[in-house]
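User: For a teaching handout, I'd like to show students what a predicted protein-ligand complex looks like in C-alpha cell form. I'll give you the sequence and the SMILES for zinc ion. Please answer with just the structure.
Assistant: Understood, here is the input followed by the structure.
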Amino acid sequence: MGAITMAEVGIDARRFFHPQQETMPRERLAALQLARLNATLANAYANVPVQRKRLDAAGIGAGRIERLADVARLPFSVKTDLRDHYPFGMFARKSPDLARLHASSGTTGKPTVVGYTQNDLDHWSELMARSLFAAGARRGDVIHNAYGYGLFTGGLGAHAGAERLGGVVVPVSGGSTERQVALIVDFGARVLCATPSYALAIAEVAEQQGVDLRRSALAVGMFGAEPWSAAMRREIESRLGLRAVDIYGLSEIMGPGVACECERQDGLHGWEDHFLFEVIDPDTGKPLPEGEAGELVITTLTKQALPMIRYRTRDITRLARERCGCGRTHLRIRRITGRNDDMLIIRGVNVYPSQIEAVLVGLPGLAPHYQLVLERHGSLDALTVEVEAASGEGLFSEIQKHVSHHIKSRVGVTATVVVKQPGEVPRSQGKAVRVRDLRPKVT
Ligand SMILES: [Zn+2]
C-alpha cells in the first residue's frame, strides 16, 4: 500500500478533503471495513453487556468475522435499545473517557442518549468537513449555520465540521428569521446549513423584506435532518440562487455527516471508511440484492463510546456502488423517500409525506408550504391536504380540483384539499411539522 501516488492514477487531490480515503479503491476499502468491523465487535463484546449477550446468542461470541458478507449473521440494534437501556446501557465508555452527550427530545417516554469520546468527536468533525467540502464549501467561506444548537446533533455537528474545514462559522441556530436574512447578506455567507423547510422559510422572509438572496454570496446549501423531494430542491435552488445538497445523518450513528451528496447531486456518498451500509427487507430482515429498495442498516466502524452493530435506521432507500463521476469511490445512498415511522397508511395505501410534497411543490398557483391532517371518520382514515395559494387572487376552487386530481393520479389516495390564504400554513422554525395526526390513539 502507498507505493502508487494519486498523481500517477490521475487523481487531483485538490478536489477532495481527504483525497486518500475518499478515492480508495474498493478492495482496499473493503479490507479496511473488515478490520474495523472486527475492532468494533471486540469493543462492543468487551464493554457492552447487552451486545455481548446478543453476540453470544448469535454464535459469534468474541470471535472474528472473516468476510464482510458475514455481517448478515450479526444481531440488529434498534432505536428502542437506547431507550430500554437509558441512559448509558449501550455505551462502551464511561466518564472520564466521554467528551460529550447528546439526546433526542423524546416525544414519547425517555429520550435517546448518545455519547462520544474525544476521538469520536474528532472523526465526526472530519467527516462533516469532508461532507461540506464535497458539497462545494471551501476554506475561508462564511458558513451560516441555522441548524438548532443544543442537545440536537445538527447545530454542533455542522459547527465543528465547518471549523475543521477552515470556514468562518456563524452559529445562528434556528429562529429569528428576519435577522438571519440580514446576517446572510451583511456577513456575505457563501454556505447555508439548515433544514430544507427552514431554508424555504428564510427565502420567503427575504422576499417579503424585498431582499433578493439570489444576488447574495450564497452558493451552496447543505440541507438535511428531514426528508425532502426533488421538487423541493428545485424550488429552494431557484429562490435562494444556490446549489442545494442533501446531507444525511442520525444521532444514533453519529449525527450529520454520515453521508452527503457531492456537487453532482446524484445520491449521497456514504462514508464507508467509518460506516458499513446495508439494505434489508424491513419485514424479513434479510439482506436485499444490490440496488433494491429497503431499510437502511448501518454499522459504525470507528465509534468508541457508542459502537452500533447493524442499526436499523427505519429509512427506506437503495444503495448504488457504481463509481460516481466526481471520482469518489464510496457508495451512494439514493435520496431517502421517507422513514418507515413517517409512512402513513391511508385506506390501505402506503403514503410518505414526501410523495405528496413532490406533487404539490411546483404546481402553478401554489406556495410550497403544506400540512397533512389525518382524522378518523368512523372506521376509515381521512386525509386532508392543506395547501397554500401563492396569491389571494386566484380561483381557489380551481386550485383545489387540480391538486386533488394530481394527488389521486400520482400517489393513489383520495384527499380532501383545503386551499389556505397566503401565509396561513405554519412555517418551519427548524424541523417542519408535515403531519397533524388527529386520529384517536390506540391504547
Ligand atoms: Zn460523487
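For the handout, you might add this sentence: Residues 262, 264, 269, 324, 326, 328 surround zinc ion (CB under 6 Å).
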